[in-house]
C-alpha cells in the first residue's frame, strides 16, 4: 500500500492530457461479452477499474490483450456464464454491467453485489426492474444476484430514478432481446451515448441514446468492431478545477468542452478566465475568486463527481458558498479532511457551507473515496507545506498516471510505501 505526498503552494503551468473516460470504459469492456468476434477498444485509461474488469473477463474465458498500453482487444468467443459471486466484483461499482451483458448473451448470470465509492445508499432496484421487465427472473442470494431467462423479450421500461447504471445495463440486456425495448426517463450522460455507439458498431439497433427515451430493436447477432472511447469529462473537470486553484495557465488537451458546460459556467461565475477550443480548454491564472453556490444534478447539470473537487477550490473564494449534492446523501466525507487542512466548512444535511478565503495548510489526510481523493490532491497543491494522502487505491480507480501528469505541470507529487506502523494505524482507524 502506498501514500501520496504533495509539496504544495507552487503554481502549475503547461499542458495536461485527459485519458479515456472511466465511466465509459467500465461499461464498454463488459459490452464486449455480447459480441461473437473480437472487439478493440482504443484509448482506455490506465486505472484499476479497467484492470479488474480485464481479469473478470478472463475469469469467464475471454482472451484479453493490450496493444500500446491503452488499446484493449477482447476475444469473447470462448466466454462462458461462469458465476462471479464476489471478490473482484466488490472492488468496483461497474461490475453490475456484467449482469446486463451476461444476461444478454447467456440468458443467465450470477454476479456479486457491486462495490465502488461509498456515497450513501446506492441501490440497483432500477436495474433489476429493467431485467425483470425483459423477462428475467432475478433473485438475491447471500449477496449475489442470480439472473435467469428462458427468453428475453423487449419491453417498455420507465425508470423511477434517472440512473446512468440502470440505463446502460438495460441497454446491454435488451440489444439481443426479441422485439422492441423502450427505456423512458433514461439518463442522458455522454457515456451512455458512447456505449450505444459501440453497441451500434457491433450491429445493435439503438435510437435516442443521449435523450430521455431510448428505443432498441433487438438483433440476433452482434459482431466485433473497433471503437475509440470518449475523453473523461470528470478527469478533465478535475484538471479545470485544479487549474483554477493553482494554475498559472493550464491547457487541458483531449476534452469535449460541450460535456463540461455546467462546470465552465460555474467557474466563469467565480471569475476564472476560460477559453474553449474544439478539443482543448485553457484555464488562465485566477485571482480574487468569488464564492458561488452549486447544486449537483443529472447530466447536463453539475456532475456530482465534481462536487468534491469543487469544494476544495471554494476554500479560496471570497464569501460563503453552499454546495448541495442532490444525487448522494453521503458524499461529504472529504469535508473533515479539508478541515484538517484549515478549511472553514460545515455540513448541514445534503449541503456543505464553505467560507473563504482561507490559506490551506498541508496535513495528513485520508481519501475515503475516489473524488474525495481528487479533492485532497487539489487541496494539497493549494496548501503550504507537505500533504500526505492515504487511501490512494481509491484515486487509482479513476485517475490514469496522476502523479506523472501533475508533475508534468510542475507539481511536486510522489508516492511512498506505507510503513508497517502506518498500515496498522490505517486498519484501526
Ligand atoms: C460507474 C459509473 O458510471 N458511475 C457513475 C454512475 O454511478 P451509478 O450508475 O451507480 O449512479 P446512478 O446514476 O445509477 O445513481 C443516481 C442516483 O439514483 C439512485 N439509484 C440508482 C439506481 C437504482 O437502481 N436505484 C436508485 O435509487 C442512486 O442511489 C443515486 O442516488 O453515475 C453516478 C451519477 O452520475 C456517478 O456518480 C458515478 O460516477
Ligand atoms: C462515484 C464514482 O465512481 P463509481 O460509481 O465507480 O463508484 C466516481 O467516478 O466518482
What's the arrangement of secondary structure elements?
Blueprint: E1 2-8, E2 12-17, H1 22-31, E3 39-42, H2 48-59, E4 63-67, E5 71-75, H3 97-106, E6 108-112, H4 125-133, E7 137-141, E8 144-148, E9 156-158, H5 164-174, E10 180-184, H6 190-202, E11 205-207, E12 213-217, E13 226-228, H7 233-246, E14 247-253, H8 261-270, E15 274-276, E16 280-283, E17 294-296, H9 307-314, E18 319-325, H10 333-340, E19 344-348, E20 351-356, E21 364-366, H11 370-382, E22 385-390, H12 392-396, H13 402-407, E23 412-417, H14 420-428
Parallel strand pairs: 2-14, 3-13, 9-10, 17-18, 21-22
Antiparallel strand pairs: 1-22, 1-23, 3-5, 4-5, 6-8, 7-8, 10-12, 11-12, 14-16, 15-16, 18-20, 19-20
Helix pairs in contact: 1-2, 1-3, 1-6, 3-5, 4-5, 5-6, 7-9, 7-11, 9-11, 10-11
Bound molecules: uridine-diphosphate-N-acetylglucosamine and phosphoenolpyruvate.
Search tags:
4-stranded mixed beta sheet; 26% strand; transferase; UDP-n-acetylglucosamine1-carboxyvinyl-transferase, Chain; 429 residues; globular; cell wall biogenesis/degradation; cell cycle; peptidoglycan synthesis; 2 domains; binds uridine-diphosphate-N-acetylglucosamine; alpha+beta
Amino acid at each position: 500500500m502506498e501514500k501520496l505526498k504533495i509539496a504544495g503552494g507552487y503554481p502549475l503551468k503547461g499542458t495536461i492530457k485527459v485519458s479515456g473516460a472511466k465511466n465509459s470504459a467500465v461499461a464498454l469492456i463488459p459490452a464486449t461479452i455480447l459480441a461473437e468476434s473480437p472487439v478493440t477498444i482504443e484509448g482506455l485509461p490506465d486505472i484499476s477499474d479497467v484492470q479488474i474488469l480485464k481479469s473478470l473477463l478472463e475469469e469467464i474465458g475471454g482472451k484479453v490483450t493490450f496493444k500500446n498500453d491503452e488499446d484493449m482487444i477482447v476475444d469473447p468467443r470462448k466466454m462462458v456464464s461462469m458465476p462471479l459471486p464476489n471478490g473482484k466484483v466488490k472492488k468496483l461499482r461497474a461490475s453490475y454491467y456484467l449482469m446486463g451483458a451476461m444476461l444478454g448473451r447467456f440468458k443467465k448470470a450470477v454476479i456479486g453485489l457491486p462495490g465502488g465509492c461509498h456515497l450513501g445508499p446506492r441501490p440497483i432496484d432500477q436495474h433489476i426492474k429493467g431485467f425483470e421487465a425483459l423477462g428475467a427472473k432475478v433473485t438475491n442470494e447471500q449477496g449475489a444476484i442470480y439472473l435467469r431467462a428462458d427468453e428475453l423479450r423487449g419491453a417498455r421500461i420507465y425508470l423511477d430514478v434517472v440512473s446512468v447504471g440502470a440505463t446502460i445495463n438495460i441497454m446491454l440486456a435488451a440489444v439481443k432481446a426479441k422485439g422492441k425495448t423502450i427505456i423512458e426517463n433514461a439518463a442522458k450522460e455522454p457515456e451512455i451515448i458512447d456505449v450505444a455507439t459501440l453497441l451500434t458498431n457491433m450491429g445493435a439497433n439503438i435510437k435516442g441514446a443521449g435523450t430521455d427515451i431510448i428505443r432498441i430493436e433487438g438483433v440476433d447477432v452482434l459482431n466485433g468492431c473497433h471503437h475509440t472511447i470518449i475523453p473523461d469529462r470528470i478527469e478533465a473537470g478535475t484538471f479545470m478545477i485544479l487549474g483554477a486553484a493553482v494554475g498559472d495557465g493550464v491547457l487541458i488537451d483531449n476534452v469535449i468542452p460541450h460535456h463540461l458546460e455546467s462546470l465552465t459556467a460555474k467557474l466563469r461565475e467565480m471569475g476564472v478566465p476560460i477559453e474553449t477550443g474544439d478539443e482543448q480548454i485553457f484555464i488562465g491564472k485566477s485571482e480574487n475568486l468569488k464564492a458561488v453556490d452549486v447544486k449537483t444534478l443529472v447530466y447536463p447539470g453539475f456532475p456530482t463527481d465534481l462536487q468534491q473537487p469543487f469544494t476544495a477550490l471554494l476554500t479560496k473564494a471570497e464569501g460563503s458558498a453552499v454546495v448541495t449534492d442532490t444525487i448522494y446523501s453521503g458524499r461529504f466525507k472529504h469535508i473533515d479532511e479539508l478541515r484538517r487542512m484549515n478549511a472553514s466548512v460545515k455540513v448541514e444535511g445534503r449541503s456543505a457551507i464553505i467560507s473563504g478565503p482561507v490559506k490551506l495548510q498541508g496535513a495528513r489526510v485520508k481519501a475515503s473515496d475516489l473524488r474525495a481523493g481528487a479533492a485532497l490532491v487539489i487541496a494539497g497543491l493549494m496548501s503550504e507545506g507537505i500533504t500526505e494522502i492515504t487511501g490512494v487505491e481509491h484515486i487509482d480507480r479513476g485517475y490514469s498516471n496522476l502523479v506523472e501528469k501533475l508533475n508534468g505541470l510542475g507539481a511536486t507529487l510522489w508516492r511512498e510505501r506505507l510503513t508497517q506502523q502506518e498500515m496498522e494505524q490505517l486498519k484501526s482507524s
